[in-house]
Amino acid sequence: MMVLKGKKILIGISGSIAAYKIPIIVRLLMKEGAEVQIIMTPAARDFVTPLTLSTLSKRPVLTEPFNPVDGTWNSHVDMGNWADLMLIAPASATTLGKMAAGIADNLLVTTYLAAVCPVFFAPAMDLDMFQHPSTQRNISTLLSYGNQMIAPREGELASGLCGAGRLEEPEVILEVIRDFFKGNQSWAGKKVLITAGPTVEPIDPVRYISNYSSGKMGYALAEEALKRGAEVTLVSGPVQINAPSGVNLIKVQTARQMLQACDTVFDDSNLLIMTAAVADFRVSDVSGSKIKKQAGIDTPALKLVENPDIVKTLSSHRKTGQYIMGFALETDNEVANAQSKLSSKGMDAIALNSLNDPGAGYGTDTNKVTLIHKSGVSYTSALESKSVIAGRVLDFIEETIVNP
Q: What are residue 133's phi and psi, to 5 degrees?
């Protein structure tokens, strides 16, 4: 599950207020099992301390070509050969200019010039500085060298202006690095069917039964599968999210519509990932007109009937080699209930969400999952962004397909 375990990451920090985010990036990389070495420009020390970074990275932070006390040389050549990946973040306008022009007047740039590994740079500066022709020319030059940019996002800047220039968030930078080491075509040739969002079961023309599902987890999984080269069909209930470019999107409303849509593509799919929050019940007799309150008449009772169990129905006619993962949102006896669903519905694996975990579940941008395979193999994540969790889920599927 730890794609970065043992990977050697060299981080170069230049002078920018955005340097305050780098300790978070270091901590995330260390949790993933990476080895981290940090180089700072002299200006960077004004924004974040070497003590903080060395404590987190468990390595001395280097700022000068040699130790002024004993003359020990901090070899930029050795570091450039040591790293599996170099990340320069934040990359200030000054550092971008020096990198593009080969001005090797500090340890960070000399190490960059000696690096034989892939280099990612993440600019951070004020809006007008980022948009200046010289900065854009330097970025174009660095891209032409084969370096890869982690583009700044738009938002409020230190100056008070709003626009492009904010250093990308640590969790996104981590995901970029993880994606690089995973390889972006590991699912090439696979056909993946993903369900997402709620289903909506009508009561009358203006009312319905549904749930709080936002669809964010399913859409994140669709995007992650696309990144890995899969052909993705996304069957989605009504959500307020744009589907990732490249998916085959099938929009549905009810559970029965979702089953019908899945049934048309399931036989040709290698994997089914069922994240949709399907309503267990529907109204047996949907009113053709709006149900109105009427004085002296009792409140109408809704007669409910069971909806079809989509996963169980599909797994009943699965072909050899098809892999099925479901999701279970539980509030009590979480693991036991998830394991019961895993076996009773004929799935290979299940992802357990607990509403008892703050920040996980419906409507959030974060999630925490326990992944359980039918063989007993399991993995529990930390609370992470749903895009990161999507990577965890697909990694788990890869591992349990190979080692069921």
A: -55, -35
- What does the alpha-carbon distance between residue 326 and residue 351 come to, in Å, rounded to a whole number? 6
Number of other CB atoms surrounding residue 119 within 10 Å? 22
Catalytic residue among 74, 211, 248, 270: 211
Which of 239, 316, 238, 329 minimizes the C-alpha distance to 272?
316
Residues 143-172: pLDDT tens digits?
A: 988 899 998 876 665 666 666 677 899 999
Contact criterion met (CB below 8 Å) for 372 and 352: yes
The answer to whether 151 touches 196, Cβ cutoff 8 Å, is no
Cβ neighbours for 216, distance < 8 A, ≥ 6 positions apart? 241, 363, 364, 365, 386
Residues 226, 213: Cα–Cα separation, whole Å = 22
Q: Is 81 a catalytic residue?
A: no
Per-residue DSSP letters for 195-261? EESB--EEEETTEEE-----SHHHHHHHHHHHHTT-EEEEEE-S-SSPPPTT-EEEE--SHHHHHHH
Give the number of residues written for the chain: 404
Instruction: HSE, CB side, 13 Å, CA atoms: give it for residue 253.
Output: 8
The rounded radius of gyration (Å) of the Cα atoms in the chain is 26
Measured in whole angstroms, how far is the alpha carbon of residue 276 from the centre of its chain?
Answer: 18
Could you please report the per-residue DSSP string of 61-112?
PB-SSB-TTT--B--HHHHHHH-SEEEEEEE-HHHHHHHHHT---SHHHHHH
User: Could you tell me which residues are beta bridge partners of residue 378?
Assistant: 372
CB distance 221 to 194 below 8 Å: yes
Q: Alpha carbon 87 to chain centroid distance?
A: 19
The domains found in the chain, sorted by start residue, are 8-182 (3.40.50.1950), 191-287+302-402 (3.40.50.10300)
Other Cβ atoms less than 10 A from the Cβ of 196: the count is 29
User: Are 31 and 3 spatial neighbours (Cβ–Cβ below 8 Å)?
Assistant: no
Look up residue 19 and give its amino acid: A
Round to whole Å and give the CA distance between 349 and 263. Answer: 20
Q: φ, ψ for residue 362 (rounded to 5)?
A: -70, 140
**pLDDT per residue as tens digits for the range 10-47:** 999 999 999 999 999 999 999 999 999 999 999 999 99
**Nearest residue to 327 via CA among 311, 307, 313:** 311
Single pTM value for the model: 0.62
